[in-house]
What does this fold into?
Amino acid sequence: MAPVNFILNVLWLVLGGIVMGIGWCIAGLIMVLTIIGLPWARSCFVIAGLAFWPFGKMVVDRQFVQGYHDAGTGPLGLVGNVIWFLLAGWWLALGHLASAVANFVSIIGIPFGVQHLKLALISLAPVGKTVVDSSDVRVMQ
It folds into this structure.
C-alpha cells in the first residue's frame, strides 16, 4: 500500500470511517440473524472492510473480474439488490450521505466526502459487485 493511501485511510477512520464501518458490521450481524438476509451477510462484512479502509481499493462489477456472468450479475442480482435495498441499503446510504455532507464542510474533508458518496452508491445495490485493489484494476484493463 502506498504511504499516501495509508495516511488517507487513517484520516478516514476519524472522519466517519469507523462509524460507517461499524454500521456495515451491524447490518451484517442483522443479516446473519435472519434467514432472508443470510445471502447478504458476507457482502456486508466485505464492504465493512472497505468502509473501514477505502483508499487504494475499488468496487467493480464481478463479471469483469471473473470474465463471466453468475447469479449475482444477472436478473437474480437485480432481485437481490431490490431486497437488499429494502432491508438495509437505504439506511446505510443515508449514513454515508450524512457523513459526506459533514466532510464537505471543510476543504480537507472533500476527498473523504467523495469516498462516502461512492460507498452510498454501493450501499444501494451491492449485489454483483466485488472489492479489488486499485492496482489490480489497472492490470485488468
Observations:
- The chain has one domain: 3-140.
